[in-house]
Amino acid sequence: MTENGWIKIHRSIWDNPWMYKPYVYDIWSYILCHVNYQPAEVIFEGKRITLNPGQGLFKLREMSVLFKIPLTSLHRIINLLKNETQIETQTSPRNTVITVVNWQKYQMNGTQNGTQVEHKRNTSGTQTEHLPIIKELKKNKKNKNIYGTYQNVLLSDEELEKLKSEFPSDYLERIERLSEYIASTGKKYKDFLATIRSWSRNDQKKKPSWNDAQAGYQGALRKLEGLIDE
């Protein structure tokens, strides 16, 4: 909802080192300005739902064009905000519902004339389905957290820490790669950490060894020498 109004941003936001990363503050403030401040009905996954204050429907592709950043970079920022418990997400192929964590605590307390209303029916008298509280969906029966753009990679806190230690520079990209693969193929995995590790080993096998590279270089050199001799 983009009607005129204002939001509160606490000065302590700059105590977070990750807020200084490129575009993180821009994306964070954009989300704050575009979530609803009062309940609103939208269509999500073909169903009519009610978004509560602090929730908004976003098209990530449009956001990437708006900020002129790659979609993969935007996904990394969204995942960063999720990992820092600033937002929760629920994704469909066309759009994403973003919920700002603690919206009521920081934005609704004495700032806007609105309260969170639980609607049973809309104005036409038809039943309106409410968006599930996403935070309750973040744990599965095995007490694992849900990660990835398509919300289909399950990792416990311990497994995530192992992933960070083994792949410190690109663990988020590896999660996204698995998430996209599962979404596109429909495949299911019992152990997501083991799958990421297995993919990493396969990637290493595909890389040519130093000896192979040297042999290829020597072979190309001999062919070139033969052409010169001719």
Key words describing this protein structure:
230 residues; alpha+beta; 2 domains; three-stranded mixed beta sheet; three-stranded antiparallel beta sheet; 8 helices; 8 strands; 43% helix; elongated
Task: Provide a quick synopsis of the model.
This protein is an alpha+beta fold. The protein has helices at 24-34, 60-67, 71-83, 103-108, 157-166, 171-185, 192-206, 210-229; strands at residues 40-44, 47-51, 55-58, 87-91, 96-100, 129-130, 145-147, 153-155.
Secondary structure tally, helices: 8
Helix content: 40-55%
Gyration radius over CA: 23 Å
Query: Kindly, what is the distance between the CA atoms of the first and last residues, rounded to a whole number of angstroms?
Result: 74 Å
Largest sheet: 3 strands, mixed
Dominant shape: elongated
Computed structural class: alpha+beta
The residue-averaged pLDDT reads 77
Residue runs with pLDDT of under 50 for 5 or more positions: 110-130, 132-139
In what order do the strands lie side by side in the largest sheet?
1-2-6
Instruction: Quote the beta fraction.
Output: 5-15%
Following the backbone from N to C, one meets helices and strands in this order, namely: HEEEHHEEHEEEHHHH
What's the total number of strands?
8
Tally of distinct domains: 2
Write the layout of secondary structure elements.
Elements lengths: L23 H11 L5 E5 L2 E5 L3 E4 L1 H8 L3 H13 L3 E5 L4 E5 L2 H6 L20 E2 L14 E3 L5 E3 L1 H10 L4 H15 L6 H15 L3 H20 L1
Parallel strand pairs: 2-6
Antiparallel strand pairs: 1-2, 3-5, 4-5, 7-8
Helix pairs in contact: 2-3
